[in-house]
Design a protein that fits this description.
By secondary structure, the protein is mainly α. The chain contains 13 helices and three strands; from the N terminus they run H-H-H-E-H-H-E-H-H-H-E-H-H-H-H-H. A three-stranded mixed beta sheet has the order 2-1-3. It starts with 7 loop residues before the first helix and ends in an 11-residue tail after the last helix.
């Protein structure tokens, strides 16, 4: 089919829908037909790029190859996303409105909840819409914007976990100077540092990816614009991009990991000199944070293994990435609520205020 009056991308869409109208079977398999059409048009590229002006949009493959399992997966992800939104929003709300939660720990906690909220909103809704519609497209600027936020928010959350580890170190090892050290300007400076560190580790890799030329097919084999998946569509060598991306990831993980480990080694040395009752209190103070850090780094290791081992099918890698993106934001509110009595009581007070007032009995009844 010739396309004298259409751009190549619009030609693909037109041919796709024409085939769907001619064949009932194509209507059932819309997403698979669309992906096939975009792949087949690679031969019509000009000078190795997608169309005369290069790629103008990307197709997010997601889990389009799944059959009836898509409905069940959509329901599970939707319910999980609702819990993530509700739990993290509740922590942000009570930390900002309850005057009893004015300690630095709760300040850092609601910042972590905010990052988790934005991070999951950047990734999960796109996957949900792809499961629902079958075909998910995204513009080139939108793809790189999503890529940037995915990386930056992931690094920033670990930087905030590092700041929280330092907060626990000061609270346990220097309790008499805690309020003097963790002043409001110091807290704001630490949070600004966490966001700046995230930007520092993100900008080199994403800016290099944005400057590359991309060839057809323009199908991203992931649930969203994952950097390594988008990089596979680059025209030419990406050896330098891979080195820069790996270097930034190593800096982000090693820096935060070493600082968190150092904080807890110093806490362990200090706790070993305390009485039994003080040890239990110190352990209770750190338990929630230690649990969250363990889950975060364990899930990151699973994602790394799934990408490095070639035996896993793409669907398994996508599901592992989704679990990594959703697991920590899903569990954070539960872990901190279960481990922290003040937070539980604050949530209880907030919920009691939100309940409708009970109807009082009439006088003389």
């Amino acid at each position: 089919m010739g396309c004298p009056n259409f751009a190549l991308d619009e030609c693909i869409l037109l041919e796709f829908f024409m085939r769907a109208l001619k064949s009932p079977k194509a209507v059932v398999n819309l997403s698979e037909s669309y992906l096939l059409l975009s792949t087949n048009h690679r031969s019509s590229s000009v000078n190795g790029t997608w169309g005369p002006d290069g790629v103008t949009f990307f197709i997010i493959q997601g889990l389009a190859s799944l059959g009836q399992e898509k409905t069940l997966l959509f329901i599970i992800l939707l319910l999980g996303y609702i819990v993530i939104i509700g739990g993290n929003s509740m922590i942000i709300f009570v930390a900002l409105t309850d005057s009893k939660l004015n300690s630095p720990m709760f300040f850092f906690l609601y910042n972590l909840s905010f990052v988790d909220l934005i991070y999951t909103t950047t990734t999960i809704p796109n996957l949900l819409s792809g499961l629902l519609a079958g075909v998910k497209t995204i513009s080139v600027p939108g793809c790189f914007l999503q890529m940037h936020f995915v990386i930056q928010l992931g690094v920033t959350s670990r930087a905030i976990l590092t700041v929280m580890a330092y907060d626990r170190y000061v609270a346990i090892c220097n309790p008499l100077r805690y309020t003097a050290i963790m002043t409001r300007p110091a807290r704001l400076l630490l949070i600004a540092g966490a966001w700046s560190f995230g930007a520092f580790c993100t900008l080199p890799a994403t800016s290099m990816s944005f400057q590359r030329s991309y060839c057809g097919p323009n199908v991203v084999k992931h649930g969203w614009c994952d950097p390594s998946s988008v990089r596979r569509l680059v025209c030419g060598s990406v050896a330098v991009d891979n080195i820069v991306s790996l270097s930034c990831a190593v800096v982000a993980l090693l820096t935060t990991g070493v600082l968190i480990l150092t904080s807890y080694i110093l806490i362990g040395v200090s706790v070993s000199k305390m009485a039994v009752a003080q040890r239990l209190k110190a352990f209770g103070t750190c338990a929630a944070h230690l649990t969250v850090v363990s889950i975060s780094y364990s899930s990151a290791s699973c994602v790394y293994i799934s990408y490095r081992v070639g035996n896993f099918p793409p669907e398994v890698r996508i599901i592992v990435s989704v679990l990594y993106a959703a697991l920590t934001p899903f569990l954070n509110p539960m872990i901190y609520s279960l481990k922290n009595k003040e937070l539980r009581e604050s949530i209880g007070r907030t919920l009691s205020r939100l309940r409708p007032a009970a109807v009082l009995p009439a006088k003389g009844a």
